[in-house]
Amino acid sequence: MSSILPPTVKLLINGEFVDSQTDQWREVINPATQQVLARVPFATTTEVDAAVASAQEAFKNWRSTPISSRARVFLRYQQLIREHLKELATLLSADQGKTLADAEGDVLRGLEVVEHAASIGNLQLGELAHQVAGGVDTYTLRQPLGVCAGITPFNFPAMIPLWMFPMAIATGNSFVLKPSEQDPLVTMRLAELAMQAGIPPGVLNVIHGGAEVVNALCDHPAIKAVSFVGSTAVGTHVYQRATQAGKRAQCMLGAKNHAVVMPDANREQTLNSLIGAVFGAAGQRCMALSVLILVGEASQWLPELVDKARKLKVNAGCEPDTDLGPLVSRDARTRVERLIAQGLAEGAELLLDGRNPAVSGYESGNFVGPSIFAGVTPQMSIYREEIFGPVLCVMQADSLEQAMAIINANPYGNGTAIFTSSGASARRFKELIEVGQVGINVPIPVPAAMFSFSGSRGSRLGDLGPYGKQVILFYTQTKTVTERWFDEDDQSGAVNTTITLK
């Protein structure tokens, strides 16, 4: 009896979706059912080189394509994404596990960056100084770098690729994308739509693989810049390897995000915001609120928070009214369960245990329900490590100053939030907190597309963040031109051996 192999994920090289010639494959698995959805190839060295060579050749023409023509490609692209939103969300939910509503949000947040990419011409303007010396003008040009590469994680397989290649391509570069090998299906569909929108062959290429492909992108001499979002360990490796090879690099890394709740906060709005920010996407977000600091009398809110979390519905992401889908893999589930057990062993109080939830019809899924620890201290593993699951660590503080001291002592600096009705408390918090992205009564302060993602300290390597104004600086280089023109009959010049202009 012959078995039918699942479909294979293609590579995108020079505008063609091609089969890999590799002998190394990984299965793409639905995390709710364990169904094998596809097989993804780990690209060969020859295939990586072909993708980069294609991008290198395409850059020659794309760099001189008018800004308005590049913008029109992304105007068409954003429309195609809108038209296929439901399909994209269904694909994303199947191979990543998110609820359909969360999957749509994943696509829509990426779409915001695509829309911004269609209008970034005004951010590429240079500067001009007239008459810096006699008959001399100086001006700057913002020119594309060349071939750029992006390495994206499993948790946002639509949004984060859309953070990267649209901005790079809109500024005149070509791009080689390596999506997560765990859930590449929606990313590949986005690549197909990008081709339909009119991105020329070779300007966008997609390859798949693991550590060897990542290293190849960091090492390849034709690649000028590397963008990465993912774990601290891998991101640190990418940054060091890419920069040692002379490339620009921006790496968004791990996090441990804190929320401070003051006693004067709006109780119902705050509790609802916390539940969504902690347990949405099953906690698999680098901006998830994983630590809650209750100040003073706000500690009395904890039983109500636990009760709200207990009522969340755990189910497959495709099922209606689901609040939490499965974790992306068996390994992810095992890791989260290990850390929960470790938290108990180290003395934290487990107020809500989400291990082994009963999910009818999906008994083999990678499910962990909402889990809440109280009595957490900075020395515990559940505080020091990024759990990346639906687990909340609750701490208490006597004052705002004590809460800020806890946050500022943590090595990470991705995001933080304060919930309060006091303008004075909010102002003090935003001024003194040493975290790159701050929410005031906003639980997940990811900035809109016209701003830049500004995580800091241990959550980021590189000076310039993805999307917004900063990414224009990352994907372009400044060329300064100083020029003077003479009339044909001007014979007044003299030899000048100094470095000054007159």
UniProtKB/TrEMBL annotation:
<keyword id="KW-0560">Oxidoreductase</keyword>
<dbReference type="Pfam" id="PF00171">
    <property type="entry name" value="Aldedh"/>
</dbReference>
<dbReference type="InterPro" id="IPR016161">
    <property type="entry name" value="Ald_DH/histidinol_DH"/>
</dbReference>
<protein>
    <recommendedName>
        <fullName>methylmalonate-semialdehyde dehydrogenase (CoA acylating)</fullName>
        <ecNumber>1.2.1.27</ecNumber>
    </recommendedName>
</protein>
<dbReference type="InterPro" id="IPR016163">
    <property type="entry name" value="Ald_DH_C"/>
</dbReference>
<dbReference type="InterPro" id="IPR015590">
    <property type="entry name" value="Aldehyde_DH_dom"/>
</dbReference>
<dbReference type="GO" id="GO:0006210">
    <property type="term" value="P:thymine catabolic process"/>
</dbReference>
<keyword id="KW-0520">NAD</keyword>
<feature type="domain" description="Aldehyde dehydrogenase">
    <location>
        <begin position="17"/>
        <end position="481"/>
    </location>
</feature>
<dbReference type="GO" id="GO:0006574">
    <property type="term" value="P:L-valine catabolic process"/>
</dbReference>
<dbReference type="GO" id="GO:0004491">
    <property type="term" value="F:methylmalonate-semialdehyde dehydrogenase (acylating, NAD) activity"/>
</dbReference>
<dbReference type="InterPro" id="IPR010061">
    <property type="entry name" value="MeMal-semiAld_DH"/>
</dbReference>
<comment type="similarity">
    <text>Belongs to the aldehyde dehydrogenase family.</text>
</comment>
<dbReference type="InterPro" id="IPR016160">
    <property type="entry name" value="Ald_DH_CS_CYS"/>
</dbReference>
<dbReference type="InterPro" id="IPR016162">
    <property type="entry name" value="Ald_DH_N"/>
</dbReference>
